[in-house]
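Hi team,

Filling in the usual template for the complex we talked about on Friday. All components are listed, including any nucleic acid strands or ligand strings, so the model treats them as one assembly.

SUBMITTER: L.P.
PURPOSE: interface mapping
COMPONENTS: two
RESIDUES: 678
SEQUENCES:
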Amino acid sequence: MKLATLKEGGRDGTLVVVSRDLARAVRVPDVAPTLQAALDDWAAAEPKLRAAAERLERGAADGAFAFDPRACAAPLPRAYQWCDGSAYVNHVELVRKARGAEMPPSFWTDPLMYQGGSDRFIGPCDPVEAISEAHGIDLEAEVAVITDDVPMAVTPEAAAGHIKLLMLVNDVSLRGLIPAELAKGFGFFHSKPASSFSPVAVTPDELGGAWRDGKVHRPLLSFINGEPFGRPDAGVDMTFDFPRLVAHAAATRHLGAGTIVGSGTVSNKLDGGPGKPIGEGGVGYSCLAEVRTVETILHGQPRTGFLRFGDRVRIEMPDESGASIFGAIDQEIVRYGGR
Amino acid sequence: MKLATLKEGGRDGTLVVVSRDLARAVRVPDVAPTLQAALDDWAAAEPKLRAAAERLERGAADGAFAFDPRACAAPLPRAYQWCDGSAYVNHVELVRKARGAEMPPSFWTDPLMYQGGSDRFIGPCDPVEAISEAHGIDLEAEVAVITDDVPMAVTPEAAAGHIKLLMLVNDVSLRGLIPAELAKGFGFFHSKPASSFSPVAVTPDELGGAWRDGKVHRPLLSFINGEPFGRPDAGVDMTFDFPRLVAHAAATRHLGAGTIVGSGTVSNKLDGGPGKPIGEGGVGYSCLAEVRTVETILHGQPRTGFLRFGDRVRIEMPDESGASIFGAIDQEIVRYGGR
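RESULT (copied from the run log):
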């Protein structure tokens, strides 16, 4: 089942069920007005949503219409919790190396996770507003899950059953602000502005065999200004799987329904070295910080700049037939001029 | 105007207007079902809520009933954003001193702030569940504001007008988990479980002259097992006022309506030294970490333990006549036994 949220009906938008091929959608006002409302009572909502999805697939859904990702907000336009892990420890190691920071061995056994802002997510085709290019605007292509209510101290085994939906994320980062901010000791704040999400959130069964071991075994494609930038497999080199990340988030607290837990920047070590660009036959990268790190290691300094105003970022994941699973995050970086 | 949220009608509860003396309340279904809904369209909701408050004060509100804080959830039972500052830099300096951490001079000019979890707040009279006393369970008595929509890069001057409500907070902290967590570099996560809020949120005008310079000039009273523990003035030694904290939160992103911004642990330097207990004529403390720090400075090691299961914490703020402004946070620390 695939779900999306139209930008209509208020701040939380309007929940729609989307066809598998992303061509058609249908509103479901009799089931739940919003995705959060559905998640608040998922056990009751899910079978009804699946019934609507089944009607949509066989062309029997009244009021179905052509699905347009540009009409979409993030599946949860605002959420009560967004926790982002760093499950691809390869990425963490590379980025720390670039800024001369040691990596404690515990990073391979104890997940890193930060609490992100969740009050105003960016729609999949909406612009990323930033104040200055000097902030070092970067994409971070990730996969994320949405949970129902998760009890405190849940085991990873039990956490797996609380994963109800998956999405793609662009966890926009302001790299220039990170070193000073982390030096203050309280974690990210200014350096992690609003994140963007894919048009569609899907139930795990939509991924078929690609959803196994608590990971999504499909390539995550990133493009900058239409040029292929990354295609690492999200199922490879993921040190901590999603159930483990959810359990980590719930270690000392209950998680409310609609909690989003991210994978962190997807990164592979397939190349056997620090990572090659796609142009050189590698799998590329899911953020500019990583290619800059690799360049620093190889050439003594980065050669690739961060994002500029007017640049476009596209993030998408194809199924085995090449069809887009979640629809594309496709957005422009724009200067924020005040309001 | 004073507002509260009853634990009825769903996860977001039911908004009520509360009388100034906290004796009576009335539901306002014709205005807004929940506090978040009111904040989502505050310009429209505020005058209607004020009219209901005025009717309640003069005994003309149909359906008014006796107000019971034990029937309350947090004013926002769940929120889209909870950002907690550390505006009482005295507290930060003391706590860092205790763990042997340097304090950069920039801490006096650039606010510290962390992103907190906001998906499941604790009601004012509900228990604080924790897994182990060994985690070092601590209270942190604070003041917080709730904003409407705040544009990115707002000035402190303009931010002042976005402060719509004030509350008290118990920002429960697990001190034993903080050093290892901060050493990982991503900020607090396990060490900052769910926070508790006062029964009532009030508009700034309810504070009269005590709300000036963007600060609340009233003592914040904390009690542990009924014994007075702290009475520092929230208007004293607050290095960064609330408009400054809100502007800091909005530096690189828009803040959604219903964003909660906290002051951090209230701490005074009135004693001229590291801070005296109330029993010795001082203003005491708003968290155990601070008294333990002072004990370490004076005696070489802490003498006061952290909270134990069965302990009770009470946090309250009196007006000039001694009446409670926000009602009391009054809660027991309990062992979480799984679910």
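MY TAKE: Chain B touches chain A through 57 residues (CB under 8 Å). Chain B has seven helices and 21 strands.

Thanks, L.
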